[in-house]
């Protein structure tokens, strides 16, 4: 059984989707702890499912590295096999990424490497493209630059706003994340192998998306 730690900053909608999936009979992973960098509404989901929570407030530390050291100490107590960033609005220190990767996943509301960064949905709309997407990646020390594990296109419809487009992307993100966690648990996805192979076989950008 794959053990998973989930890190959040807000409402934890991806966390809730993972908790629901993990509660299904036969799902090969279980969430053992939920952590946050601030008081997060998503803790309510963890409490509802009886999952322990860990709060490591970023503002209480002088440096990002000190915060990262404490977060690592508190999460590593649970010895998770996989760590999922579920709306954690904080860049992890490089030392923490190095310690946890490649067993460190994040989702992004764009078809990476298109539109990385905090405003992927807004940037896609501003670019006037016909499609964007959702991606699940291994976190590295860059901004949305890690190995891509899964992704799917999402069309941009006439009249879409940042809100309406993001609301259509979110269910795709959740489904991809659940599928990836399941596949990691069953051994169908080897994150270490994907990380090794990324240089030899970089993901291509679909030229038809523009």
Keywords, please?
210 residues, alpha/beta, Rossmann fold, 7-stranded mixed beta sheet, 7 strands, 36% helix, globular, disordered C terminus, Phosphoribosylglycinamide formyltransferase, transferase, phosphoribosylglycinamide formyltransferase activity, EC 2.1.2.2
What does this structure look like?
With about 210 residues, the chain is of the alpha/beta class. The chain folds into 2 domains: about 1-100, Formyl transferase, N-terminal domain (Rossmann fold), CATH 3.40.50; about 105-210, 3-Layer(aba) Sandwich (Rossmann fold), CATH 3.40.50. Helix content is about 35%, strand content about 20%. It has 7 helices and 7 strands; from the N terminus they run βαβαβαβαβαββαα. It has helices spanning about 15-20, 45-50, 65-75, 95-100, 120-125, 160-185, 190-195; strands spanning about 1-10, 30-35, 55, 80-85, 105-110, 130-140, 150-155. The protein is globular, with a radius of gyration of 17 Å. The termini are far apart.
């Amino acid at each position: 059984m794959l053990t998973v730690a989930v890190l959040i900053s807000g409402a934890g909608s991806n966390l809730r989707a993972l908790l629901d999936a993990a509660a299904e009979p036969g799902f090969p992973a279980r969430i053992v702890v939920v952590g946050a960098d601030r008081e997060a509404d998503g803790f309510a989901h963890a409490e509802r499912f009886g999952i322990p929570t860990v709060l490591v407030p970023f503002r209480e530390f002088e440096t990002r590295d000190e915060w990262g050291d404490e977060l690592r100490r508190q999460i590593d107590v649970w010895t998770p096999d996989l760590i999922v960033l579920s709306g954690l609005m904080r860049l992890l220190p490089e030392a923490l990424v190095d310690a946890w990767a490649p067993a460190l996943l994040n989702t992004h509301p764009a078809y990476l490497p298109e539109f990385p960064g905090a405003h992927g949905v807004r940037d896609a709309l501003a670019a006037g493209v016909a499609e964007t997407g959702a991606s699940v990646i291994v976190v590295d020390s860059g901004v949305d630059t890690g190995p891509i594990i899964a992704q799917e296109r999402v069309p941009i419809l006439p009249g879409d706003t940042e809100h309406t487009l993001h609301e259509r992307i979110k269910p795709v993100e959740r489904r991809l994340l659940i599928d990836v966690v399941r596949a990691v648990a069953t051994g169908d996805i080897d994150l270490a192998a994907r990380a090794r192979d990324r240089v030899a076989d970089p993901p291509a950008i679909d030229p038809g998306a523009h």
